[in-house]
Amino acid sequence: TGLELVDGSGLIDRCRGIKTAKELSYMDLANRITKKAYQWAFAQVEPGMTSQDLRALISTGHENLGASGGGWPLFGPLSAFPHGSRQEYHLKEGDVILVDGGCTVEGYRSDVTRSIVFGKPDDKQLKVFDIVKRAQDAAMAAVQPGIPAGEIDRAARKVIEDAGYGPDYAHFVHRLGHGIGLDWHEWPYLVKDNPLPLEPGMTMSNEPGIYLYDEFGLRIEDCFVVTED
């Protein structure tokens, strides 16, 4: 036919990867809505409820704030499966509740993960949560224009490895983060050995986690934007 198909993602990805102030305002609002919806839903958890029960509450929380969104909760040992489980589980005292979710404002997404304990956390849960939070903080401290995306992943992973939950992907089983904007997962990616230099206006998730099968998993996720400084 004389036609040649050309992959235009290199151009489109860069156009979408650098956000304007208006785009950032939509994403900021979406993230604040999701956090408030979580708070409202978490205040209503009770023994015996299923993840579907909490999911319905989180959806209602978003709707009450004028947004379309939700969350995907995992309870107890199922929280060690970062991509979810179809197994039904009823919440009990001491269980981890891990929720990943978000909403959309004018087409732009939020993505927030929160891990809490129903009741009183034990010493191991507190220790692992502290490690994950320090990993997230280390990644955030490393963000600056010009640094390779893979170095942000490395900063978080080192904290987790140094705490004894390595090596590599042994218990932190996924990349640190992904781009976010019109899609929940989009270019660029904070993943090992990615040489792409970060630029002002890029928006990504920062979501380290530690997953201990047959016990629990803990993840904290917040989104950030790279700025000039």
Helix content: 25-40%
Overall radius of gyration: 18 Å
What fraction of residues sit in β-strands? 15-25%
Distance from first to last alpha carbon: 51 Å
Shape: globular
H/I helix tally: 5
Mean pLDDT: 97
Q: Biggest sheet, in brief?
A: 4 strands, antiparallel
Low-confidence stretches: none
- Order of secondary-structure elements: HHHEEEEHHEEEEEE
Number of strands: 10
Classification by helices and strands: alpha+beta
Please outline the helices and strands.
Layout: H1 9-17, H2 21-42, H3 51-64, E1 68-75, E2 96-105, E3 108-109, E4 112-117, H4 123-142, H5 149-165, E5 177-179, E6 186-190, E7 203-206, E8 209-212, E9 216-219, E10 222-225
Antiparallel strand pairs: 1-2, 2-3, 2-4, 5-6, 7-10, 8-9
Give keywords:
single chain, 229 residues, alpha+beta, 4-stranded antiparallel beta sheet, two-stranded antiparallel ribbon, 5 helices, globular
Structure, explained:
The protein is of the alpha+beta class. Helices cover 36% and strands 22% of the residues. It contains 5 helices and 10 strands; from the N terminus they run H-H-H-E-E-E-E-H-H-E-E-E-E-E-E. It has helices at 9-17, 21-42, 51-64, 123-142, 149-165, and strands at 68-75, 96-105, 108-109, 112-117, 177-179, 186-190, 203-206, 209-212, 216-219, 222-225. The strands form 4 sheets. Strands 1, 2, 3 and 4 form a 4-stranded antiparallel β-sheet that branches. A two-stranded antiparallel sheet has the order 5-6. Strand 8 (209-212) and strand 9 (216-219) form a beta hairpin. Helix 2 crosses helix 3 and helix 4 (123-142) runs antiparallel to helix 5. The longest helix has 22 residues, at 21-42. The mean pLDDT is 97.
